Amino acid sequence: MFFTSQTVLSQTEAPLLIAKDSVKSDKIDVLAPAKAAFYSALVPGLGQIYNKRYWKAPIIYAGLATSIYFYVDNNKKYQEFRNEYKDRLNGTSHYQDDDPYYGPLDNNRLIEGQKFYRRNRDLSAFITIGIYILNIVDANVDAHLMQFNVNENLTVRPDIYQNEINYKQNVGLTLNYQF
Q1: In a domain, 52, yes or no
Q2: The pTM is what?
Protein backbone atom coordinates (compact mmCIF):
# COMPACT_ATOMS: atom_id res chain seq x y z
CA MET A 1 0.00 0.00 0.00
CA PHE A 2 1.20 3.30 -0.94
CA PHE A 3 0.50 6.20 1.21
CA THR A 4 0.40 9.47 -0.49
CA SER A 5 0.00 12.70 1.13
CA GLN A 6 -1.04 15.77 -0.56
CA THR A 7 -0.30 19.07 0.84
CA VAL A 8 -2.46 21.86 -0.26
CA LEU A 9 -0.92 25.23 0.15
CA SER A 10 -3.11 28.19 -0.17
CA GLN A 11 -1.74 31.56 -0.86
CA THR A 12 -3.45 34.53 0.63
CA GLU A 13 -2.98 37.87 -0.95
CA ALA A 14 -1.30 40.39 1.30
CA PRO A 15 -2.91 43.79 1.33
CA LEU A 16 -1.27 46.17 -1.05
CA LEU A 17 0.77 48.80 0.79
CA ILE A 18 0.72 52.23 -0.72
CA ALA A 19 3.44 54.62 0.32
CA LYS A 20 2.16 58.09 0.84
CA ASP A 21 4.25 61.09 0.12
CA SER A 22 5.08 62.91 3.33
CA VAL A 23 5.32 66.29 1.64
CA LYS A 24 2.03 67.96 0.98
CA SER A 25 1.75 69.63 -2.35
CA ASP A 26 -0.43 72.63 -1.68
CA LYS A 27 -1.44 74.77 -4.55
CA ILE A 28 0.78 77.85 -4.60
CA ASP A 29 -0.62 81.18 -5.69
CA VAL A 30 2.33 82.94 -7.28
CA LEU A 31 0.46 86.24 -7.39
CA ALA A 32 -0.22 86.32 -3.64
CA PRO A 33 2.87 88.44 -2.78
CA ALA A 34 2.04 90.96 -5.50
CA LYS A 35 -1.59 91.13 -4.39
CA ALA A 36 -0.60 91.62 -0.76
CA ALA A 37 1.84 94.41 -1.68
CA PHE A 38 -0.76 96.07 -3.91
CA TYR A 39 -3.41 95.92 -1.18
CA SER A 40 -0.99 97.41 1.35
CA ALA A 41 -0.05 100.16 -1.06
CA LEU A 42 -3.71 100.90 -1.69
CA VAL A 43 -4.79 100.88 1.98
CA PRO A 44 -2.10 100.46 4.66
CA GLY A 45 -2.72 97.28 6.62
CA LEU A 46 -4.93 95.67 3.99
CA GLY A 47 -2.09 93.44 2.77
CA GLN A 48 -1.61 92.13 6.30
CA ILE A 49 -5.32 91.40 6.51
CA TYR A 50 -5.10 89.64 3.12
CA ASN A 51 -2.28 87.49 4.56
CA LYS A 52 -4.48 86.75 7.61
CA ARG A 53 -2.04 88.49 9.96
CA TYR A 54 -4.75 90.58 11.55
CA TRP A 55 -2.68 91.58 14.58
CA LYS A 56 -0.26 93.60 12.40
CA ALA A 57 -2.88 96.03 11.05
CA PRO A 58 -3.45 97.92 14.35
CA ILE A 59 0.32 98.29 14.77
CA ILE A 60 0.59 99.85 11.32
CA TYR A 61 -2.35 102.17 11.98
CA ALA A 62 -0.90 103.21 15.36
CA GLY A 63 2.49 103.94 13.78
CA LEU A 64 1.00 105.95 10.95
CA ALA A 65 -1.39 107.84 13.24
CA THR A 66 1.41 108.72 15.67
CA SER A 67 3.78 109.95 13.00
CA ILE A 68 1.03 111.96 11.27
CA TYR A 69 0.03 113.49 14.62
CA PHE A 70 3.61 114.63 15.25
CA TYR A 71 3.88 115.95 11.69
CA VAL A 72 0.74 118.07 12.12
CA ASP A 73 1.74 119.27 15.59
CA ASN A 74 5.29 120.23 14.57
CA ASN A 75 4.01 121.93 11.41
CA LYS A 76 1.53 123.97 13.45
CA LYS A 77 4.24 125.11 15.88
CA TYR A 78 6.61 125.84 13.01
CA GLN A 79 3.98 128.04 11.36
CA GLU A 80 3.33 129.85 14.67
CA PHE A 81 7.02 130.63 15.16
CA ARG A 82 7.36 131.64 11.51
CA ASN A 83 4.33 133.91 11.60
CA GLU A 84 5.49 135.57 14.84
CA TYR A 85 8.93 136.18 13.35
CA LYS A 86 7.42 137.66 10.16
CA ASP A 87 5.09 139.84 12.25
CA ARG A 88 8.01 141.13 14.31
CA LEU A 89 9.92 142.00 11.15
CA ASN A 90 6.85 143.88 9.83
CA GLY A 91 6.22 145.51 13.22
CA THR A 92 2.72 144.01 13.44
CA SER A 93 3.29 141.51 16.25
CA HIS A 94 0.11 140.60 18.14
CA TYR A 95 2.03 139.56 21.23
CA GLN A 96 3.28 142.02 23.81
CA ASP A 97 6.43 141.73 25.87
CA ASP A 98 4.39 140.37 28.77
CA ASP A 99 3.15 137.38 26.71
CA PRO A 100 4.34 134.21 28.51
CA TYR A 101 5.08 132.29 25.29
CA TYR A 102 6.57 134.66 22.71
CA GLY A 103 7.29 137.68 24.92
CA PRO A 104 10.67 136.57 26.32
CA LEU A 105 11.89 135.31 22.94
CA ASP A 106 14.08 137.48 20.77
CA ASN A 107 14.34 137.11 16.98
CA ASN A 108 17.23 134.63 17.15
CA ARG A 109 15.21 132.36 19.43
CA LEU A 110 12.28 132.53 17.02
CA ILE A 111 14.59 131.48 14.17
CA GLU A 112 15.94 128.60 16.28
CA GLY A 113 12.37 127.57 17.13
CA GLN A 114 11.52 127.54 13.44
CA LYS A 115 14.53 125.37 12.65
CA PHE A 116 13.71 122.97 15.50
CA TYR A 117 10.08 122.46 14.54
CA ARG A 118 10.84 122.31 10.81
CA ARG A 119 13.44 119.59 11.42
CA ASN A 120 10.99 117.63 13.60
CA ARG A 121 8.24 118.08 11.03
CA ASP A 122 10.48 116.75 8.25
CA LEU A 123 11.61 113.86 10.42
CA SER A 124 7.98 112.98 11.13
CA ALA A 125 7.26 113.02 7.40
CA PHE A 126 10.19 110.67 6.72
CA ILE A 127 9.02 108.34 9.50
CA THR A 128 5.49 108.32 8.05
CA ILE A 129 6.84 107.44 4.60
CA GLY A 130 9.09 104.79 6.15
CA ILE A 131 6.20 103.14 7.99
CA TYR A 132 4.14 103.17 4.78
CA ILE A 133 6.95 101.51 2.79
CA LEU A 134 7.65 99.05 5.59
CA ASN A 135 3.95 98.12 5.53
CA ILE A 136 4.18 97.23 1.83
CA VAL A 137 7.43 95.29 2.22
CA ASP A 138 6.09 93.38 5.24
CA ALA A 139 2.96 92.31 3.35
CA ASN A 140 5.04 91.14 0.37
CA VAL A 141 7.59 89.22 2.44
CA ASP A 142 4.93 87.66 4.63
CA ALA A 143 3.03 86.44 1.55
CA HIS A 144 6.26 84.92 0.19
CA LEU A 145 6.99 83.16 3.48
CA MET A 146 3.48 81.71 3.65
CA GLN A 147 4.38 79.67 0.56
CA PHE A 148 7.67 78.49 2.05
CA ASN A 149 7.72 74.73 2.62
CA VAL A 150 8.52 74.05 6.26
CA ASN A 151 9.71 70.48 6.56
CA GLU A 152 9.98 68.67 9.91
CA ASN A 153 13.21 67.01 8.79
CA LEU A 154 15.11 70.29 9.03
CA THR A 155 15.57 71.46 12.61
CA VAL A 156 17.73 73.78 14.64
CA ARG A 157 17.94 72.70 18.25
CA PRO A 158 19.93 73.77 21.27
CA ASP A 159 22.52 71.18 22.20
CA ILE A 160 24.62 70.59 25.32
CA TYR A 161 27.71 68.51 24.66
CA GLN A 162 30.83 67.59 26.57
CA ASN A 163 34.18 68.97 25.50
CA GLU A 164 36.60 66.11 24.82
CA ILE A 165 39.66 67.97 26.08
CA ASN A 166 38.62 69.19 29.53
CA TYR A 167 35.22 67.44 29.86
CA LYS A 168 33.33 70.66 30.49
CA GLN A 169 29.80 71.18 29.22
CA ASN A 170 29.44 73.36 26.13
CA VAL A 171 26.23 74.86 24.84
CA GLY A 172 25.53 75.32 21.15
CA LEU A 173 23.04 74.98 18.33
CA THR A 174 22.85 72.03 16.00
CA LEU A 175 21.44 72.06 12.52
CA ASN A 176 19.96 68.67 11.68
CA TYR A 177 18.57 67.37 8.43
CA GLN A 178 17.03 63.90 8.46
CA PHE A 179 16.77 61.97 5.22
Answers
A1: yes
A2: 0.67
